[in-house]
Structures are given as C-alpha cells and as structure tokens.
Design brief:
mainly alpha
Length: 147
C-alpha cells in the first residue's frame, strides 16, 4: 500500500499539470483538503469498526464478526475503505492539478469497483450468510435437545 501510494505520487510529479484554472488556487487546495478529510475519515471509521482482523482479511481466515457490520460508515457505502482511498487519490490529483492523477484515480476506482463486485462483495455475503445459517442450525439443535 505504501509503495502504491508512493508510485502514484511520483507519477503525478512526473506529469504535466494544469497551470491555469478559472478558480483561485486556494479554492483548489480547499477542495483537495475537503476530499482528504472525507476520504481519510471513511478509511479510519471503517478501520475502527472492523478492527485489525476485519481490516486485514480476517474473514478470509475464518475470523468473523458476530454479524456483518452495517453501521456507519458501512451504512453510507458498502466499501468505505475503497471509497475513502479513492477520494484520497482524487484529493492528491486535485492538489497537484494533475490530469494524469485524475485518470489514475478513475482507474483505481474502476479496479476497486470490479474487485468488490466480482470477488469481495460476493465472498462477504457468502461467509456471513453461511455463518448465519450455521448459527440458526446450532440454535435449532440446542432447542431440540431441550425438548
């Protein structure tokens, strides 16, 4: 992740920038700061809700939460870390007034979206639906033993 961000930053510095905009440079910087705040806020809020094990593929190793998290920021977007990261890339592109950065940000968004639609989203739904079914079966068995 650090290497990816470093390479992105280096790519922006090596490319042409937009030198004249119809708005003041301070407005551009303010927009970038706002995007940084929202993006970082989403990433940190998701990390806080998921914890280390939920953030770093714990579900792939069978470390699950009691149930799928649906509170903020997951009630705002199903993939707050990916959206937050994308907003941070966008903020960096806006800060540097980089057309190449904007194109790279679009590419990052497309890759993240593809991954979440094809792999991560279905996998998360599968493991939590399977865990819920197992929990129901366990309750039913316990109830049957009592009777």
């Amino acid at each position: 992740m650090i290497t990816r961000d470093y390479k992105y930053h280096e790519a922006l510095l090596d490319q042409a920038t937009i030198t004249s905009l119809p708005v003041d440079d301070n407005i551009v910087k303010s927009i970038a700061v706002g995007l940084y705040v929202i993006g970082t806020g989403l990433v940190l809020a998701a990390f806080w809700r998921l914890g280390i094990d939920g953030t770093y593929l714990g579900d792939y190793f069978g470390i699950l939460k009691e149930e799928k998290i649906t509170g903020f920021p997951f009630n705002f977007t199903s993939d707050p870390m990916y959206l937050g990261s994308t907003l941070n890339f966008l903020a960096h592109a806006v800060w540097h007034k980089s057309p190449a950065g904007l194109l790279l940000t679009i590419w990052v968004y497309v890759v993240y979206k593809f991954y979440t639609i094809t792999i991560e989203g279905p996998f998360t739904e599968y493991i939590y639906s399977t865990a819920a079914k197992a929990k129901q079966q366990k309750k039913a068995k316990a109830k049957a033993k009592v009777h």
